TrEMBL record:
<protein>
    <submittedName>
        <fullName>Dihydropyrimidinase</fullName>
        <ecNumber>3.5.2.2</ecNumber>
    </submittedName>
</protein>
<dbReference type="InterPro" id="IPR011778">
    <property type="entry name" value="Hydantoinase/dihydroPyrase"/>
</dbReference>
<dbReference type="InterPro" id="IPR050378">
    <property type="entry name" value="Metallo-dep_Hydrolases_sf"/>
</dbReference>
<dbReference type="Pfam" id="PF01979">
    <property type="entry name" value="Amidohydro_1"/>
</dbReference>
<dbReference type="InterPro" id="IPR032466">
    <property type="entry name" value="Metal_Hydrolase"/>
</dbReference>
<comment type="similarity">
    <text>Belongs to the metallo-dependent hydrolases superfamily. Hydantoinase/dihydropyrimidinase family.</text>
</comment>
<keyword id="KW-0378">Hydrolase</keyword>
<dbReference type="GO" id="GO:0004157">
    <property type="term" value="F:dihydropyrimidinase activity"/>
</dbReference>
<dbReference type="InterPro" id="IPR006680">
    <property type="entry name" value="Amidohydro-rel"/>
</dbReference>
<keyword id="KW-0479">Metal-binding</keyword>
<dbReference type="InterPro" id="IPR011059">
    <property type="entry name" value="Metal-dep_hydrolase_composite"/>
</dbReference>
<feature type="domain" description="Amidohydrolase-related">
    <location>
        <begin position="57"/>
        <end position="452"/>
    </location>
</feature>
Length: 479
């Protein structure tokens, strides 16, 4: 199958150009001046399909480097399977995800890794890779880290929160970091002070403060800043590269910026929810259906921050200055009925997570519309840097000859109403949308995954199992 995408504005992280893109089989074969012929060969007459992209952007497929499909968490499972979650991703112009293999304390890491392959294999709409979560860092975990690198799992997430579930103490963290500094892998950190949060949670509950709003209040920015600083110091001690996940506090960004100014290999992502949503408006919301439990729809960790403290402004600023390098979703959806509602009367029992895998490209494109970031920066934050950060750049994250034919045609004049109500789009397996009512300037028109057209004008044309596992190399982003 040969496809020629003509006349679009090709957007890479490095800039924009009007060009034709030839996809041959599963690979981009050429990026050409519009209407050009290849050694006198009439391209348009010799391909299977010509797609007119005039007036539209032609971008490398989105890479969501932080998802949790069917994750076991809080006594239930994230409601998107690899099948439903990756199909929703495809609709939103995301053609690669990196999901987290979960190890709870006591579980065998390599068994879990194989289990995640069983969950994903034959089910995905788009390509996928894995990070590994390390919960109890035993000596066997360190050996497993080395083995997983050979399997293409080159990044390991540790938690400074969720005691008794995921939390590693500082000694365990240092042990894993020492190994990472030797084997070249990347340590990802959930940076919140778990002991402090556990205490505040108990104190709020004891005062009868049980609504979702107190989830946010019990996880203050100081707990995020402190843990971010500690993680940076432990990484500094060991020489390990460090990537802070789901940053929401401006004070955490300042810690990250200072470490980067010192030349340390410290990186970070933020997520759409921290750019647009707030503690007061979401976690404190009420509705006819759910009363003061409405805010459970937005319970995630790190939590949404107060709109009065300037966090969102600082997130956009950090995205411009490259103190924040990546935007992923932390897609971890739970339905209100039967899942989130386990926390009625006790916010600490609400499964943590928001579903956004379908909307990330659209939501971050609004940053371009609002003048917060440039068009190439949109592509860099959502595709190119995730590819480089996690060792898949060249194949992914760029429109250039030799890259996989993961290409999205994005119409800046299109419109997307996101949510689940009448006339709205939503393919995630959730009974609500955290983004209900968002009106998007722009629209994902056509999505190619390794050369196959899998989405065309809102219609899904792919099949489950189209997506393949990619082995990742070591990070290509380190200084
Ligand atoms: O609330 C969240 N973030 N749920 C997913 C688990 C995690 O910590 O990333
Ligand atoms: Zn986390
Ligand atoms: Zn500041
Ligand atoms: Zn997560």
């Amino acid at each position: 199958m040969k496809t020629l995408i003509t006349g679009g504005t090709v957007v890479n992280a490095t800039g924009t150009a009007t060009a034709d893109v030839l996809i041959d089989g599963d690979t981009i074969a050429a990026v050409l001046a519009p209407g050009s012929s290849l050694l006198g060969f009439d391209l348009a007459a010799n391909v299977d399909e010509v797609v007119d992209a005039a007036g539209k952007y032609v971008i490398p497929g989105g890479i969501d480097a932080h998802t949790h499909m069917e994750m076991p968490f809080g006594g239930t499972f994230a409601s998107d399977t690899f099948e439903t979650g990756t199909r929703a991703a495809a609709h939103g112009g995301t053609t690669s995800i990196i999901d987290f293999v979960v190890q709870y304390a006591g579980e065998n890491i390599l068994d879990q890794y194989h289990l995640w392959h069983e969950k994903a294999a034959g089910n995905c709409a788009v390509d996928y890779g894995f990070h590994q979560i390390l919960s109890d860092v035993q000596d066997s975990s360190l050996v497993a880290m080395d083995e997983l690198i050979n399997e293409g799992v080159t990044s390991f997430k540790l938690f400074m929160a969720y005691k008794g579930v995921f939390l590693s103490d500082d000694g365990q963290i240092v042990k894993a970091m020492q190994r990472a500094s030797e084997n070249g892998s990347l340590i990802m950190m959930h940076a919140e002070n778990g002991s402090v949060i556990d205490l505040l949670v108990q104190q709020h509950l004891a005062r009868g403060e049980t609504t979702p709003f107190y989830h946010g209040v019990s996880r203050p920015w100081q707990a995020e800043e402190e843990a971010t600083h500690r993680a940076i110091m432990l990484a500094n001690l060991t020489g390990a590269p460090l990537y802070i996940v789901h940053v929401s506090a401006k004070q955490a960004v300042e810690q990250i910026a200072a470490a980067r100014d010192n030349g340390q290999n410290v990186f970070a992502e933020t997520c759409p929810q921290y750019l647009y949503l707030s503690l007061e408006d979401q976690l404190g919301a009420t509705s006819a259906e759910w009363g003061d439990f409405e805010g459970a729809k937005w319970v995630c960790s790190t939590p949404l921050r107060s709109k009065h403290e300037g966090h969102q402004h600082h997130m956009w600023q950090g995205l411009r200055t490259n103190d924040l390098q990546v935007i992923s979703t932390d897609h971890c959806p739970f339905c209100m009925k039967g899942q989130k509602d386990m926390g009625i009367g006790n916010f600490s029992k609400i499964p943590n997570g928001i579903g956004s895998v379908e909307h990330r490209m659209d939501l971050i494109y609004q940053g371009v519309v609002m003048g917060e970031i440039s068009l190439p920066r949109w592509v860099e934050l959502t595709s190119t840097t995730p590819a480089r950060m996690f060792g898949i750049y060249g194949k992914k994250g760029v429109i250039q000859p030799g890259a996989d034919g993961d290409v999205v045609i994005y119409d800046p004049n299109g419109h997307t109403s996101i949510g689940i109500g009448e006339g709205r789009t939503h393919h995630m397996n959730m009974d609500y949308s955290a983004w209900e009512g968002f009106e998007i300037d722009g629209h994902v028109d056509t999505v190619f995954s390794r050369g196959r057209k899998i989405v065309d004008s809102n219609e899904y044309l792919g099949r489950k199992g189209d997506g393949a596992y990619f082995k990742r190399g070591l990070s290509q982003y380190l200084i």
